[in-house]
Specification:
alpha+beta, three-stranded antiparallel beta sheet
Length: 135
């Protein structure tokens, strides 16, 4: 079964190692195969990954997903995970789920879970900021 993706005018998509840029009209693509596929809006650039510890986790999972040798990123990923878990134990449930997907080589699912981890991190920061402002 093919993946169906609707692209807006000018929107980019990554298919394997190729970047495809849509022209001036909406387009619907039907993609079959097992190449990694990412929309431009979901791709995190390396300079964006420094914004937060959980962003670095997302970036490393993205690297695994796009790589032909994802294991090359495992050590860096697990180092970052350890730092996040020590600083914010409430992230553990997300990290356990991400780890399960990585160990099963389901990198796209791990990427989606990593987005949830970033959202949890934002909530923690928002809560801490609000508490700090109250004092």
């Amino acid at each position: 079964m093919a993946l169906v993706i609707d692209l807006k005018p000018g929107e980019k998509i990554l298919v394997g190692e190729a970047v495809i840029t849509n022209d001036k009209q909406r387009t619907r693509l039907h993609i079959a195969g097992d190449a990694p596929i990412m929309r431009e809006k979901d791709i995190m650039k390396e300079d964006e990954a420094i914004q937060s510890p959980c962003s670095r986790i997302y970036f490393l999972v993205q690297c695994m997903y796009l790589s032909r040798a994802p294991e090359e990123y495992h050590d860096k990923y697990f180092e970052q995970v350890k730092l996040v878990q020590e600083a914010a134990p409430s992230c553990k449930i997300f990290i356990m789920q991400i780890n399960d997907e990585i160990m099963g080589r389901h990198y796209y699912k791990a990427l989606k879970l990593s987005k949830q981890l970033i959202e949890h991190e934002r909530e923690l920061i928002g809560y801490a900021t609000a508490k700090s402002a109250e004092q």
